From TrEMBL:
Similarity comment: Belongs to the cytochrome P450 family.
Cofactor: heme
Organism of provenance: Nicrophorus vespilloides
SUPFAM superfamilies according to UniProt: Cytochrome P450 (SSF48264)
Keywords: Heme, Iron, Metal-binding, Monooxygenase, Oxidoreductase
Pfam families assigned to the protein according to its UniProt record, in alphabetical order: p450
Stated name of the protein: Cytochrome P450 4C1-like
């Protein structure tokens, strides 16, 4: 058995070396840190919390386009808004990069990971589920679940600082289940959601694969402890989504023909389009993950940014005072949320500094020439949104939290593809309007009830585990509003 393992490893090393040598003549035009044989630049990222800072430093050192070699995988890191526009709007880059293959055990061929005709068909099916008339109805659920979050946080008010992110993740998962899935799961009543825990573990194991020249190969990954952990998590994740599908089917029975006209939850739309159970499950897995995790991350960092900027927090509260008119029982509506202009700028600025998806990739399916560069077929073009959003060429004094960057006049001054928290082009986030309404509702209710104070000495320890995560949580202190 040992001989077999050694033989496999030797073959992988030889194959990787051949790949690297074969590509070398094609990529020398790109600047970047010098790679080691076989492993490439992986040693640069042994400490996970150094990934993002080093990628930002490489952007400063090598420019807006540079290369990284992660084992057998060549990554072109892109922070150039003109190239980003081509990558996000040109049909030949519609397919996701090979790193998304690591999500397939979990998400199958759902909207995030699929491409071509299947992606186009499913996107067309799902898009009507996020029509503003449906979103208007969802606001009631956003509000009710946000008020539950307010109640859950009461035990921490006027107490020591704490990690607020688990409470927020449970809230966003509660919301996505009851709105998009049409199922009441009461997740906020369970302070230790198995689904949220499994999601976090899966994110870490996938990042481990990206940064391992051996784990990138399925044949070797299957012999690792990460694979066993992934299988355990997948059982939790898939069981949860299958239960959601079966419960919703039981609620609506077999009478799904009338659902489309009523524009119900996106899960109902899938039932009505003749998709296989596996296709439906893949989309539910995708939306359960993306619908709670990305929004949960964004909300956590919005609270953190407000805690660090009390003057801006006061302006948000003043806007809410005008809306609430001292009536805490006011029902938030779609139109009221649309009127929260300053809060929207705050949300956008927080997502500039902490984009929920710091990297997203596109497969290069044929040689592509851009300026003096040739991006070779088989490469992976990875858009570094985190670095782009902190580039002083487009955002002066980039570390400063300044919501006025998103005033209409300031937005007009910037190139269109320098701010992409929801991606852009045909594969932009289908749920971005849903997410914005949800975030406005949640922050509105939280800031009406609590003042956010910073935790002295705390700084998020950021890692790009598919979604941007903080290894040490998001710590704040809550004080009751009088």
């Amino acid at each position: 058995m040992l001989f077999t393992y050694l033989l496999i490893i030797a073959i992988i090393i030889a194959s990787t070396g051949w790949i690297l040598l074969g590509r070398k003549k094609n990529v020398t035009v790109f600047p970047g840190p010098k790679p080691f044989p076989v492993i490439g630049n992986i040693l640069e990222f042994i400490k996970r919390s150094e990934i993002i800072p080093k990628c930002v430093n490489f952007m400063v050192e090598f420019g807006d386009i540079y290369k990284l070699q992660l084992g057998p995988t060549l990554m072109i890191i892109v922070c150039d808004p003109n190239l980003i526009e081509k990558l996000l709007t040109t049909q030949q880059f519609n397919a996701k990069s090979q790193m998304y293959d690591f999500l397939r055990n979990w998400l199958g061929m759902g909207l995030l990971t699929s491409s071509g005709e299947k992606w186009q068909r499913h996107r067309k099916i799902i898009t009507p589920s996020f029509h503003f008339q449906i979103l208007e109805k969802f606001v009631v659920t956003f509000d009710r679940k946000s008020l539950i979050l307010v109640e859950k946080l009461k035990k921490h008010s006027n107490q020591a600082d704490f990690d607020i992110s688990p409470y927020i993740y449970n809230c966003t998962l509660d919301i996505i289940c009851e709105t998009a899935m049409g199922i009441s799961m009461n997740i906020q009543e369970d302070s230790t959601s198995a689904y949220v825990k499994a999601t976090n573990i899966m994110s870490n194991t996938i990042l481990n694969r990206v940064l391992s020249p051996l784990k990138q190969f399925d044949v070797l990954y299957r012999y690792t402890s990460d694979y066993l952990l992934e299988m355990k998590c997948l059982n939790t994740l898939h069981t949860t989504t299958e239960n959601v599908i079966h419960k919703r089917k039981a609620i609506i029975g077999e009478n799904v023909d009338s659902l489309e006209g009523n524009k119900v939850a996106f899960l109902d739309m899938l039932f009505n389009k003749g998709l296989s159970f596996n296709d439906i499950k893949n989309e539910v897995d995708t939306f359960m993950f993306e619908g709670h995790d990305t929004t949960g991350v964004a909300l956590s960092f919005i609270v953190y940014c407000l805690s660090k900027n009390p003057d801006i927090q006061d302006k948000v509260f003043e806007e809410q005072q005008q809306i609430y008119e001292n009536d805490p029982n006011i029902d938030l509506t779609y139109n009221i949320l649309q009127s929260m202009n300053y809060l929207e700028k705050v949300i956008k600025e927080a997502m500039r500094l902490y984009p929920s998806v710091p990297f997203f990739g596109r497969a290069v399916c044929k040689d592509f020439e851009y300026n003096d560069f040739i991006i070779k077929k088989g490469s992976s073009a990875n858009i570094f949104a985190f670095g782009l959003h902190r580039n002083p060429k487009y955002f002066p004094d980039p570390e400063k939290f300044d919501p006025d960057r998103f005033s209409p006049e300031n937005c007009r001054k910037r190139p269109p593809y320098v701010y992409i928290p929801f991606s852009a082009g045909s594969r932009n986030c289908i749920g971005q309007k849903f997410a914005m309404l949800e975030m406005k509702t949640t922050i509105s209710r939280l800031i009406w009830n609590y003042k956010f104070l910073p935790c002295p000495g705390f700084k998020p320890d950021l890692v790009p585990a598919i979604i941007l995560k903080s290894l040490n949580g998001v710590r704040v202190k809550l004080v009751n509003r009088e």
